Fold this protein.
Amino acid sequence: MEAIITVVGFLGAGKTTLLRYLINNFIDKGWNPFVILNDYENAYMDAQHFTEQIELKSIKALSGSCICCSGIVELRNIVNRIPERANGITLIEANGTSDACSLMEFLGVGIHERFLPPIQISVVDVKNWQKRDEHNDLESNQIQVSSLLVLTHLEKVTLDRQTTVINELKTFNPMAKIVAMNDLDVSLLPEVLPSNNTTQMFDHLKSHWASCSVDLPNLPNTNCINDICNALSKSILRVKGCTKIGRDENYTYFERNPDGEVYIRPFKGIPITGAKLLTIGPGSRPLILEKAIKSSLLKNSHYFN
């Protein structure tokens, strides 16, 4: 039977990094992964990050809906249509605002009998754990029915902070195993059992935020990326973009995490939906994004001359 592993966690916690780790290690051990990616905006862009690890036909992007509620039927249909294959394993990355308890409650209903009951891994950003202000409830909800909690960003915290976070995690989910990513043995994951932890009440609407995307023109330099990210309110918790920089023929990808850190790296291939700027969080409106882009281009207009 084929295992289904869902990866959840707050925006910017490191879900994609964990997913890459899982894909590489499963392939090295002879497994055949199928990957499903969910995002409010442009999951197709995220899918292309994995094309150097697995073929595009083994990746399915589910964009525009949330798999913990409105997208659950589509997700279930995608899972049931996954081709049977030797040593198959299905990996699902939920978007960073998913109600993880609802996802696990509904996903296992109606899944083909060739699949094992889904299990959940939650990624925990130790640096920013429970520093989300009004979003702390959502972050704690995302660990309550996970069988495994994977700690990230450990290099940025003290041992005292790590111990404090682990103790807090145990109060929310005393049944979960807690490990650092580098200590994770993927060969044991297909045998992990679903969690039986008792969950706390959570207002599902708290996991539903505004999101939007707009076309992004070529930018003269990477300063524009930082200007755009800085111009967008911190209430917008996630910023992603992909476009060409200067005379470079290749695309550049960037993202701003909820803590304000901006990461810039090469993008693999050509974005299927074209160059885009997208955001998730309160205040996400096309007009706001377009204003930030225009301001950045005006500020750096001398680079066009």
Remarks:
- The mean pLDDT is 88.
